[in-house]
Design a protein that fits this description.
four-stranded antiparallel sheet; globular; 17 strands; Ribosomal Protein L9, domain 1; 372 residues; nine-stranded mixed sheet
């Protein structure tokens, strides 16, 4: 049996009857669970709570949405202007999530949740539309197979399931590990494609302290059980950074090990990151001071920040460092009188003389002007 079929079969069973082996202890926000049907809660399988990262007005994409629990939790946080999209490949899980869609819309007061069929490693392909096409155009020879490939190419380019730069926040709960190793980089690249510039990700998943040997990866039970397909802890960080994300970090890290297999430790963690704004670097006189406690730090673009020094930064870097997740580490300085904007050309390590920022606004974050 292929890894993909093993996963589909395991989670179809989980949609019909609770699978305790797929569960990892999680402290969810109980206030968001109160209005959820018990069946949705019971047949959800996760290892974290990415709903904690949802903001009002967000367009949220949940990868591997399963029973819909995280989607319905997130829907209570987005307000009237937000939207939740759950993507799953399992028909039984999609049916379970959609079963309560009308009921949940009435309880929440907004029909903001949508469930679509798709592969999380190919978010452009509309699988439901492809299945409809195949029903009308059965494949019996190589020419008809070629026609399918042509249809897929048109569909993914003209009407992608999830469009480029369309999502404020991508979340996932113990699902990325179920994607085959050969497609994991494509999966991460797809996440990067759909996130808006300035958008965020919060991925709760299982990670391992060592790389997993092939004989464990070949075990269907271990793979479908969220174990042998896990990212190695450093590998996961590197893969998201290489895709283009910045501020890649483990925001949550389970104190306790979840499983140990052949001395390899598996635990849950939540990775967060942001997609940098695609704007030109313009010098408008901004500066930042790294607060410490380390003697210096370096960001993902190679900028160096010695502790306590007023460092010159472009407007784009200023906006990144003075907002989450960096804002508690830096003091931002906005000049009292903005100089004539110019293209940024200063080398890394350039300081901003105090004379250029006298009378400026000092803040812990770009929006915080309160005195200590």
């Amino acid at each position: 049996m292929s890894q993909e079929n093993a996963v589909l079969e395991r989670y179809s069973e989980g949609a019909n009857e609770r699978q305790e082996a797929l569960c990892c202890p999680v402290d969810y926000q109980t206030s968001l669970l109160k209005i959820l049907p018990e069946e949705i809660i019971e047949k959800d399988y996760g290892c974290g709570d990415p709903s904690r990262y949802v903001r009002e007005g967000d367009v949220v994409l949940d990868l591997g949405s399963g029973s819909g629990k995280i989607c319905y939790m997130a829907a209570q946080l987005i307000g009237d202007s937000g939207k939740i999209i759950g993507v799953d490949m399992n028909d039984d899980m999609l049916s379970l999530a959609r079963k309560y869609q009308a009921e949940m819309a009435e309880k929440i007061g907004s029909d903001s949740v949508q469930f679509v069929k798709g592969k999380i490693q190919d978010l452009a392909l509309d699988v439901a539309a492809m299945e409809a096409w195949l029903k009308a155009n059965p494949i019996t020879n190589a020419d008809e197979l070629s026609a399918l490939e042509s249809w897929k190419l048109r569909q993914t380019h003209e009407t992608p399931l999830i469009a480029d730069n369309s999502v404020d926040l991508v979340i996932s709960n113990c699902v990325l590990n179920l994607v085959g190793d050969a497609e994991k980089q494509q999966l991460v690249d797809e996440i990067f494609r759909v996130v808006k510039p300035g958008g965020r990700i919060a991925i709760s998943d299982i990670i391992s302290d060592e790389f997993i040997p092939d004989h464990l990866k070949d075990d269907d039970d271990l793979w479908s059980g969220c174990i042998s397909g896990a990212f190695q802890e450093q590998e996961m960080l590197q893969m998201f950074q290489q895709a283009g994300f910045i501020a890649v970090s483990y925001d949550k890290w389970a104190d306790a090990v979840w499983q140990v297999v052949e001395s390899i430790e598996f635990r849950s963690a939540t990775l967060t990151a942001i997609k940098r704004e695609q704007v030109e670097c313009i010098d408008k006189g901004h500066a930042v001071i790294y607060r410490g406690p380390y003697s210096f730090t370096v960001d993902d673009e190679g900028h160096e920040f010695p502790r306590g020094e007023r460092m010159a930064v472009c407007e784009r870097t200023f906006n990144v460092l003075c907002n989450e997740p960096y804002k508690d580490d830096f003091i931002g300085i906005i000049p009292a009188v903005e100089p004539e904007p110019k293209a940024w050309c200063a080398p890394t390590g350039t300081k901003r003389p105090a004379a250029e920022s006298k009378g400026g606004l000092h803040s812990i974050s770009a929006s915080d002007t309160a005195c200590c």
